[in-house]
Write the structure tokens for this entry.
Amino acid sequence: MPCTSCRSALPPGARFCPSCGSPCAPGPATVKPTGRKVVTVLFCDLVGSTALSGALDAETLRSVTLRWFDLMRLQIEEQGGTVEKFIGDAVMAVFGVPTVREDDARRAVAAALAMQKALAGLNVRLEQGVGVRLEMRIGLNTGQAVTGSATLRQAMVSGEVVNVAARLEQNAVAGEILIGPDTLAAAGPGVRTTETGPLLLKGKTDRVAAHRLLGLDEVEGPEALRRFDLAFIGRTRELALLDQALDRVVRTRGAGLVVVGGEAGQGKTRLVREWLHRAPAPTAGGPRHGVGHFRARGEQPSLGPLAEAVADLLESAGPVVPSPELDLLHQGLLLDGTPNPSPADTCAALAKVLAGLSAAEPVVLVIDDCQWAAQPLFDTLDRLLRALADAAVLIVLLTRPQLFDVRPELALDAVLLGGLSDDEAQLLAAELTGGATDGEPLGPRVLARVGGNPLHLEQLLVAGDPVDADRVPLPLQALIGARIDALDPPEHRALGLASVLGGDFTADELTALAGQPAPEWTGAALHPVLHRLVRHRLIRPDGGAFRFAGGLIQEVVYTSQSKQDRADQHEEAARLDSVRRRGSAAVGGHLEQAYRYRVELGAQDAHTDGLRRRAADALAEAGRLALAHADPVWAADVLSRATARYAAGEPGSTATRRRLGQTLLDLGRGTEGRALLEEVLAEARAGGDEDVETAHARLALASAGRSAGPGESPAEAAGATLPVFAAAGDHLGQAKACLRLAQRAQEQGRHRPAEGLLADALEHAVRADAEPERAAALGAMGVSLWRGPQPVEAAAARCRELLADQGPGRRAVRLTLNCPLAVLLALHDDRDGALACLAEAEQLAKRLGYAEADAFLPIFTATVADLTGRREEALPSLERAATAARELGATALLRSALADAARIRLDLDDWRTARDTLAELDGERAGPARPRAESADLDGLRARIAAARGQAATATRLAARALATADRTDSPIVQGTAALDMARTALALERPADAAAAAARARRRFAAKGHLPAVRQAEAVVARCHGLTSGHGPGAGKETPR
């Protein structure tokens, strides 16, 4: 086996390479990367080095080059960068390795400018000494890189970010610094650049928008990341705690200390600024204050922020009476931030000055970012507080949680900031966007990602990506990545394992996922680690488990792990009992991720293929269950993923594609759904295989209006496939087939035979645990209760029984039963009850996501509106239904919507619009294949239109045919409607006696059903006919809509 570093042959059993000294990797596998980080890579190269070698002696050239190398290294390391290597005349440096800092990109920019300035000074000396000048060019780029181990002699970073940085450097001219767009975004405000225009870099398909770096303006403090010009939101409790702390020092005339803690971006600085802003002015008894803050780069003296706060305080106080103590401070603390001449003298002098200032008004000293403070500051503050026992001075320290690890006593009475509530986050989003979201609230996923952190929300909204996008803005990646990188190894490891599990997790799950028997990974031993992560606000307790404090934290932790680690952990997670208890979707998701990462790493082997197959099977089962439980949106997602994972011809592939096709039809994606089903059917028939899956596809296509045979209706397909399903014991197939046969019986107005078929459909749906079919069968039962012979009161009672028995916990059932129940209640003049049923149905439809609901719900809404005397409101609902039905290709629903709209137009004496509406239903032809109930309805309508046009013979013939067809049904509503249409036709033809007889017949049918609005309509026609025969004129007794 060769050495993984120098490729020299290794002797058997060697632990180190005898040629280069590198540790030997165990086995043939390469060393895994240690992780992935957001880094900034700097490339710098001398320009014209070939000409330089011709002008200088070799030894002189070497000396000049080494001086340049040393000077560049110094500038890089002073800004916290690491020189990875020298390549000829080039330097490659990385900011973010070995430790990530939240301002790595800004440090890299500062280093590049410092290198330019240092070279200018070096050139002065070189020109004087050897008569030459050096020129260089620099490229910077920021992005995620794979990091290696320096101890194993691996490259510290690799990835596209390195290549782009090198290409930017190569495209720069002498003396120029080019930076990539991500570096510009991550470096924060104050970076001065000009655009160079998009560059076509070698190895990149898309052009890169490079920027020429001109300078860097220093912007210190939270203003570098946050906006402070927005309205202050929330934090009522925290403001009150600060008020109490100040009141206490004023009341007791004794100094106090308050600590405000919270993770980066939680709003500590904004809170204290708002508190000071709201306080009364010093002239009105309010505090006088001064503010100082630590800088992350450690470039201040240990007492520098305290000196800054005192100087700010003195400036706001105006002229101060000179004193020896003030002179001492000016010669030491206020001069350079040091406790000169001694800490004791400095504290004594500062206490005397602060006590003097607090005699007139209370004093507040604020020191920000104390997580970067060193021990001398805390020693000084402890001494100062003791010396200020009789002064109204409040010291406010702002810090991130890591300070509490080294000084836990500060956490005891700290004002700790949690996340904003969801409502507060919505208000902040509206402030940040200036109303640009048009009042659209943030979605639950966005709220979960930010976890109430104001900075995280702000960065998401200003990143330019949609707020639901998966990408984490680079400034946030750097900020969160720095927090993660600072963790101890056990905490880092625990967080990484938790990120793979996502959601919530327990210590026992992390132990099982770690897969190591070491004592530190037992559940009990992990609890202190997890509680430290809670204290750092990276996770939070959730009952007996834990969860990430925000989704963005989980995302950054997850992406910081190598793909190999992710693949291994996902595969292990799929074996956890807790994951298996969550169902096949959770198992399949982990297996799918493990497979995907192994493929991306080039692992095309039997193990990888096994992961693919297991993922496909698990996702397919999850899709089947999602369909059974009436969740088509989720079903479409997991079935699509399963389909993508199956290889052609694998067991399970056909059933999965067929289920996906049916689901897409349910969601209104007809073209995709029909194409999949036709593909399944064609494959099966090409192989001579008429199995259950073929039968399912055939029935689904027929139901979607794409019959497998010439002119095959859904009922004909159901009749042909029912024996196939029965022979295979397929209860789902039998439920679907019985349902289609029952619907055909209903269309023919034969509701008694339909009841038996629907009972069979319901039984099979229950045995198959198929919620959509259960809901469809029960909804169809409700329609038969409405349209069939059972009186309204008994029908409504039965509908309510079905709801009580089958509805709890089943949204689809409640949707399909509430619609016919609403109509039944309207038939019995219970307007409020009907509207309540419709309101519940509309809410359920929104949550379920069935596209067909957009067509059938407005039809029920219009029916109830018509029955309750609001015909004008019914028409817009029917227009919406017709539009949705056309888009879905739902022919039956379209015909129903058009027929109902035509009837309302006729009732409103608008026969011309009614005629135009019916024209879409094949003119005045009632084909023999049309269902009886529909034929009777359309003939009755056309008879009335013909009468309005003066076509007496046609009107009489159509009205008689409608009545005869209706009598072949068992529906009192169909029969009564046909009789009432005949009455209105006769009335229009001025045959009041015939009209009265037909209206009386209609009344008997409606009364038998208990259809109260129709009874009143029939009585109005009878009354009008009697008025006409009594000589009261054609307007007498005119019917009013109700």
About this structure: Residues 1-30 form one domain.
